[in-house]
Design a protein that fits this description.
- This is Tellurite resistance protein TehB.
- Pfam families: TehB.
- The protein contains seven helices and seven strands.
- It has 191 residues and is an alpha/beta fold.
- The chain has one domain: Rossmann fold (3-Layer(aba) Sandwich).
- The chain has a seven-stranded mixed β-sheet with strand order 3-2-1-4-5-7-6.
- Helix 6 links the parallel strand 4 and strand 5.
């Protein structure tokens, strides 16, 4: 385990997520996200970053399509479940994680929100790199902490400097059969 792992050993998010993965493993969706399956093809096959990868459902999908994937999450329990020769896992606290500049052909961020990462995501993409971002909007029951939920059109406005390929806000039914609201964005870095 790296020294970085020791520094987050007692982090409340790590403890909370490890507990959820241990107790609710069978409840987590193991299928790749629809938006990732639909839009990964517009990215150059190369290096990808999966932010808050969880159990790696999207990382594994991308690795099987030929990407070399950096999969980042705070939960060491989740990361231990990801086994693929094209995936390198990193345990990190995403509230202070830094994405290396101009390193990725594709960055995905699914069901996670850390606004501080927005400029790092843009900078982390190579020219013509693709961003696939989808997470929950206010009004969703996923969390009582409103800072983890997007405001209406917030995701769109945060990435307007990129070429927007797709944007949508809609009501969805989660794998737990709950009504929720999500914002979905696909964009390309052109400069």
């Amino acid at each position: 385990m790296s020294s970085e792992s020791f520094s987050i050993e007692n982090h409340p998010d790590r403890i909370r997520w490890n507990k959820r993965y241990e107790e609710e493993f069978d409840l987590f969706d193991k299928n790749p996200s629809e938006i990732v399956m639909q839009y990964y093809k517009i990215a150059n096959i190369g290096k990808a970053l999966d932010i808050a990868c969880g159990l790696g459902r999207n990382s594994i999908f991308l690795a099987e399509k030929g990407f070399i994937v950096d999969a980042v999450d705070i939960s060491d329990i989740a990361l231990k479940n990801i086994k693929h020769k094209n995936i390198k896992t990193y345990q990190a606290d995403l509230s202070d994680y830094k994405i290396e500049k101009e390193s990725y052909d594709l960055i995905i961020n699914i069901n996670f929100l850390e606004r501080r990462l927005f400029p790092y995501i843009k900078d982390g993409l190579k020219k013509d790199g693709v961003l696939i971002f989808e997470t929950f909007l206010e009004g969703s029951p996923q969390t009582s902490n409103k800072s983890y939920l997007l405001k209406k059109n917030e995701l769109l406005h945060s990435f307007l400097s990129m070429q927007i390929i797709f944007y949508q806000e809609k009501e969805v039914i989660t794998h737990k059969n709950e009504k929720a609201y999500k914002a979905s964005l696909v964009a390309i870095k052109k400069c």
